[in-house]
Write a structure and sequence with these properties.
Layout: H1 2-11, E1 19-25, H2 35-48, E2 50-61, H3 68-76, E3 81-87, H4 91-96, H5 103-115, E4 120-127, H6 134-147, E5 151-156, H7 178-194, E6 198-201, E7 204-206, H8 211-217, E8 222-224, E9 227-229, E10 244-247, E11 250-254, H9 258-268, E12 272-277, H10 280-295, E13 297-299, H11 300-307, H12 311-314, H13 316-327, E14 331-333, E15 337-340, H14 348-353, H15 360-365, H16 368-371
Parallel strand pairs: 1-2, 2-3, 3-4, 4-5
Antiparallel strand pairs: 5-7, 6-7, 8-9, 10-11, 11-12, 13-15, 14-15
Subunit structure: Monomer.
Keywords: 4Fe-4S, Cytoplasm, Iron, Iron-sulfur, Metal-binding, Oxidoreductase, Porphyrin biosynthesis, S-adenosyl-L-methionine
EC number: 1.3.98.3
């Protein structure tokens, strides 16, 4: 915490004329902190940054690492949005991923959050975990809809045992196949939409009256690397170990190893490790991909007017890569633009890969199984 305080005090003066509209505590289990530490950090942030009166202040919660009274403390400190990692309600799946949790407590936690004034609640689920089947995940979805959160995130499990030692205990034979994962995703979309949720895309769902759902219907939804948002013109300042910032057309990341983070903060006051400035082409492609991810449609004329280019000429190779997906019924393409079909929404990542110059080779090969 001392190094985080040093980093904050060093960087905050650079943003003295800026106002904070959103604050998010994430990166694992921030509720591992005790009440005094939570208050210490919030005091630090409020002393060094100007917060809008209506700022969204959110926190990620692990239901295994929190008590009900901590929610009261968070609310008193100004937190108004809550995201809870549940992953799966199936006991066998929980045991295999070493994440056993009390189902009744999760219900009590979410209900208490509503009672004390949290204005938005989100549940995180993961599909593709060992021993998951479409039938077992249907049980999880049933319980989640009974919880009735404002938003749901249903993420694809990434099995990377070479990077994460804990995953080496998981047997490949226990993992669902690519087809099973696609079946789970399809059933998830059907189940949640029947329960009244709107499929935002890229693993996210929201109640129809939620601001994300409203923004999508109005064509003004945005996305950054943190997820979907209604605030498209904000910079993102990341602080702490491995934190990523997005400021203007630049991206930068802090040191991702704790020892190096400590050392650099002590020496320089900041922990900036690496960064990149986007080229004009990067910015153009970012706009195209964001339009598809957020609204499932793209207006060629809007891109041409904003960037002064001829879409069909500029994106000739990209449209060629997209052609097989059109033949498969994932997108409709005409002289005015691109419309993602209902089937295509399931594979929106693959569609966007066609416009990502850095992933062009992967897009050309169409490695659906790895993405699914």
């Amino acid at each position: 915490m001392t190094r985080f305080e040093q980093e904050t005090r060093h960087r905050a003066p650079l943003f003295a004329d800026r106002h904070v509209s959103q604050l998010h505590w994430g990166g694992g289990t921030p509720t591992y902190l005790n009440k005094a530490q939570i208050s210490r950090l919030m005091t630090l942030l409020r002393e060094n940054f100007h917060f809008n009166p209506d700022a969204e202040i959110s926190i990620e919660v692990d239901p295994r690492e929190i008590e009900l009274d901590v929610l009261d403390h968070l609310r008193a400190e100004g937190f108004n949005r809550l995201s809870m990692g549940v992953q799966d309600f199936n006991k066998e799946v929980q045991r295999l991923v070493n994440r056993e949790q009390d189902e009744e407590f999760i219900f009590a936690l979410l209900n208490h959050a509503r009672d004390i004034g949290f204005t938005s609640t989100n549940i995180d689920l993961i599909y593709g975990l060992p021993k998951q089947t479409p039938e077992s995940f249907a049980f999880t979805l049933k319980r989640v809809t009974e919880l009735n959160p404002d938003r749901l995130s249903v993420f694809n499990y990434a099995h990377l045992p070479t990077l994460f030692a804990a995953q080496r205990k998981i047997k490949d034979a226990d993992l669902p196949s690519a087809q099973q994962k696609l079946d789970i995703l399809q059933e998830t979309i059907v189940s949640l939409t029947q329960a009244g949720y709107q499929f935002i895309g890229m693993d996210h769902f929201a109640r129809p009256d939620d601001e994300l759902a409203v923004a999508q219907r109005e064509g003004v939804l945005h996305r950054n690397f943190q997820g979907y948002t209604t605030q498209g013109d904000t910079d993102l300042l990341g602080m702490g170990v491995s934190a990523i910032s997005m400021i203007g057309d630049g991206y930068m990341q802090n040191q991702k190893e704790l020892k190096r983070y400590y050392q650099q903060v002590d020496e320089r006051g900041n922990a900036l490790w690496r960064g990149i400035t986007l080229t004009r082409d990067d910015c153009i492609r970012r706009d195209v991909i964001k339009a598809l991810i957020c609204n499932f449609r793209l207006d060629f004329n809007a891109v041409e007017q904003q960037w002064g280019l001829h879409f069909a000429q500029y994106f000739a190779e990209d449209l060629q890569l997209l052609s097989p997906l059109a033949k498969d019924g994932l997108v409709d393409i005409n002289e005015k633009g691109i419309q993602v079909t209902a089937k295509g929404r399931l594979l929106i990542r693959n569609i966007c890969m066609c416009f990502d110059a850095y992933l062009r080779q992967k897009a050309r090969m169409q490695q659906f199984s790895r993405v699914i």
